[in-house]
Amino acid sequence: MHHPENPLIANVILDDALDKSLDYLIPAEITDTINPGSRVLVPVKNSVRQATVWQVKSSSSHLNLKSIVKLLSTAPVTTPDLLEMARWMSRYYCSPLYKVLTTLLPSSVRGKAKEETQYFITPLISEAAIAQACAKLRQKYREQALVLDVLLRHKEGLFLSDLLKETGGSKSPVETLKKNKLILMEKRQLDRSVVWEQDYFLSKKKTLSTEQATALSTITSSLDLGMFRTHLLFGVTGSGKTEVYLQAIEHALHLKKGVIFLIPEIILTSQTIERLKSRFQEKIALLHHRLSPGERLDTWNHILLGTAPIVVGARSALFSPVPNLG
Which residues of 132-146 are buried (b: 16+ CB within 10 A; e: fewer)? Predict the structure, then answer.
């Protein structure tokens, strides 16, 4: 823990129109939660602007620093590797850092979309007690019984919006059941992410030809060494390139590494997802420009947390915050 008499300094990049970083004092209450990649509100002249924390340091060459107004994200919105790549892109392409970060971080991640919460309903009594309560309520309080019927089918609970879709009723019977201490209503974050899980039997990998096996061996050797190398697979349509990709992905996942599978067009998304779902148990995230801001934000967070180690998408998926990318 840092001592408040020696406050830390955050070097930040504003979201727009300033080709340099700025230093701000980090308030004591957020010292332990702010990191490179965190999103913050900072004072600039007579306004408050959004920014990305670039660096946390112990000193500054500037005097009379202002303090950060608010920490917008308790966790970084990107990975250290992507921040390092942003630094390289800025130098290599002679582009201001704020423009590079605008490219790397979707607008939804930069604060244009908000996390959404909703009431989540779970039973407070046993399954047998719910069934008994249903029988008692069915004659005079049919709508309450209907709510409990739905909870019998969803033993882990469900969001209020999904519950009301199934009952076709209003919130009133739900409130009554809560008042009578039969159910619990608590706010939870709604997951709008576009993430798939394996939902049928896994297919077996195919036996590779000599040429395929040679190509795969070259790729997996790079993965084993943890080295960056470029590999070009050349072959006509139907020559088996995709099977090499799939087995390379399998090897990366075995090494606990993440994967980005880029496709040339969004129209190819469905068949790519189905192919991956048939081979891997891991969750698969989809990123492309047609997602709503909320869908993109929640999918981004899944990827960042490592819960979806396979990312599929077109160009915009290139900068996905995949931890430990293979």
Answer: ebbeebeeebebbbb
Beta-ladder partners of 183: 123
Note whether 230 and 314 are same-domain residues.
Answer: yes
Q: Which amino acid is at 29?
A: E
Does residue 1 surpass a pLDDT of 50?
no
- CA pseudo-torsion sign 292, 293, 297, 300: positive
Q: Domain span at residue 58?
A: 9-78
- pLDDT, tens digit (0-9, with 9 covering 90-100), for 72-131: 987 889 999 999 999 999 999 999 999 999 899 988 888 765 666 788 889 888 888 888
Closest by CA position to 193, among listed 102, 322, 284, 76: 284
89 falls within a domain: no
46: domain CATH number is: 3.40.1440.60
CATH number (domain holding residue 170): 1.10.10
Question: Are 65 and 124 within one domain?
Answer: no
Who contacts 1 (Cβ-Cβ below 8 Å, separation ≥6)?
Answer: 31, 32
Judged by DSSP in three states, 201 sits in: coil
| Of the candidates 187, 149, 146, the residue with the CA atom closest to the CA atom of residue 168 | 146
Count of residues for the chain? Answer: 326
- Burial class, 187, CB count within 10 angstroms (exposed 0-12 / middle 13-18 / buried 19+): exposed
Shared domain for 219 and 273, answered yes or no, is yes
| 68 touches 27 (CB < 8 A) | yes
* 324 domain residue, yes or no: no
Q: H or E stretch including 135?
A: helix 127-137
- Two tokens at 238? 């139907």
CA atoms within 13 A on the CB side of 51: 30
Q: What DSSP designation does 318 have?
A: G
What is the reported pTM? Answer: 0.74
- 60, 78, 96 - which closes a domain: 78
Q: How far is CA 105 from the centre of its chain?
A: 12
